[in-house]
Amino acid sequence: MNSQEMPKYKCHKSVWALKIKNIYIKPAGGATITPEEDDFSPFDVEADYVSKHQPENGGYYVLYPGGYKSYSPADAFEDGYVLI
Q1: Which pLDDT band holds residue 6 (cuts at 50, 70, 90)?
Q2: Could you tell me the residue ranges of all domains in the chain?
Q3: pLDDT for res 1
């Protein structure tokens, strides 16, 4: 990569997200995420999600339009998104 500054972008998209209270890594692969929000039950994610995103307690499980699943550390998510 050269020393030129990359183009800068501002986000304006809407996503669905849950703050992660706890992550239980399953011995057979994948994990169970327990959301901070009491209205939502724990749910499973595949091993490739865990491997790719390495989610941590306190971060956010993020679902984009089109179905892409991601993870965002709390600071980055909370600096860029507001609840609508």
Answers
A1: confident
A2: 16-80
A3: 63
Its pTM surpasses 0.85: yes
Cα–Cα nearest to 20, from 61, 77, 63: 61
How many Å separate Cα 73 from the centre of its chain? 7
Q: Which helix (H) or strand (E) holds 78?
A: helix 74-80
17: tokens are 């997200």
d(CA 49, CA 35): 16
Dist CA 20 CA 43 (whole Å): 11
Token output for 81: 């998104």
DSSP line for 28-42: TS-EEEEESSTTS--
